[in-house]
TrEMBL record:
Keyword terms of this UniProt record: Flavoprotein, FMN, NAD, Oxidoreductase
Gene3D superfamilies reported for this sequence: 3.40.50.360
The enzyme's E.C. designation: 1.6.5.-, 1.7.1.17
Catalytic activity: N,N-dimethyl-1,4-phenylenediamine + anthranilate + 2 NAD(+) = 2-(4-dimethylaminophenyl)diazenylbenzoate + 2 NADH + 2 H(+); 2 a quinone + NADH + H(+) = 2 a 1,4-benzosemiquinone + NAD(+)
Organism: Sphingomonas zeae
Task of the protein: Also exhibits azoreductase activity. Catalyzes the reductive cleavage of the azo bond in aromatic azo compounds to the corresponding amines.
Cofactor(s) needed for function: FMN
Residues annotated as binding FMN: S10, S16, L17, S18
GO function terms (MF aspect): electron transfer activity; FMN binding; oxidoreductase activity, acting on NAD(P)H as acceptor; oxidoreductase activity, acting on NAD(P)H, quinone or similar compound as acceptor
Cofactor note: Binds 1 FMN per subunit.
Record-given protein name: FMN dependent NADH:quinone oxidoreductase
Top-level taxon in the UniProt lineage: Bacteria
Subunit structure: Homodimer.
Length: 205
């Protein structure tokens, strides 16, 4: 049985384009393969910023952890378990101040865990996750895939790097961008993403 994990993070609720296209991607993949779908809405249930309890708790022996550390590490473990159980991960991220929403950053801060999702050997850092397909859906008001603003996209490249760092290097990127230049431009941008996503999912069939 294929497991799909859908992670959305936009704080814009039903107006969110990244959540819309990420959900559509997950639903269409699910319909195709009869997969199970687990949903984690990081805007509705944001992981906390990581704390000293989490940092110290990660390296403490399980039986020596304080109750704060047990709670903090337990949440991280639950998030990692969800990722590990997934064959396909669909990630939605809508640009906030040139980067991903802080809710998504907090999620990565929990799952990027030395000895659990990445390690080091003589060759340097090595991701410990493998064999998963990731669909990364990024939305932005401006255009960042090309042109003079490409240098200021601290969202898509950053997320792709974080994913690769923990071993998730099979990443298909779906962008919806250029939506702030009026209703017609927004409609054209959404139509372009719909067409692109359709082609991506056809290819995946
Ligand atoms: C608080 C806030 C900050 C934003 N910052 C940027 C930004 O830095 N650059 C940009 O191009 N668009 C920015 N936008 C526009 C969003 O990236 C755009 O609405 C995108 O569709 C958001 O993703 P979503 O639709 O999944 O919520 C911002 C929007 C909000 C609400």
């Amino acid at each position: 049985m294929t497991n799909i994990l859908l992670v959305t993070s936009s704080p814009r609720g039903t107006a969110s384009l990244s959540s819309r296209f990420a959900s559509e991607t997950a639903e269409r993949l699910k319909a195709r393969s009869g997969a199970t779908l687990i949903t984690r809405d990081l805007a509705a249930n944001p992981p906390p910023h990581i704390t000293r309890a989490y940092i110290d708790g990660r390296v403490a022996a399980a039986e020596a952890r304080t109750s704060d550390q047990v709670e903090a590490v337990g949440l991280a473990q639950a998030l990692v378990d969800e990722v590990k159980a997934a064959d396909i991960i669909v990630l939605g991220s809508g640009m906030i101040n040139f980067g991903p929403p802080s809710q998504l950053k907090a999620w990565f801060d929990h799952i990027t865990w030395p000895g659990v999702t990445f390690g080091y050997d003589e060759a340097g850092p090595r991701g410990l996750l493998s064999g998963k397909k990731v669909y990364l859906v990024t939305a932005a008001g401006g255009v960042f895939s090309q042109g003079e603003w490409a240098a200021f996209d601290f969202q898509t490249g950053y997320l792709r790097h974080l994913l690769g760092f923990i071993g998730l290097s099979d990443v298909e990127i779906v962008r919806v961008e250029g939506t702030v230049f009026g209703p017609e431009a927004a409609q054209a941008a959404i139509a372009a993403t719909e067409a692109y996503l359709h082609a991506v999912l056809e290819k995946a069939a």
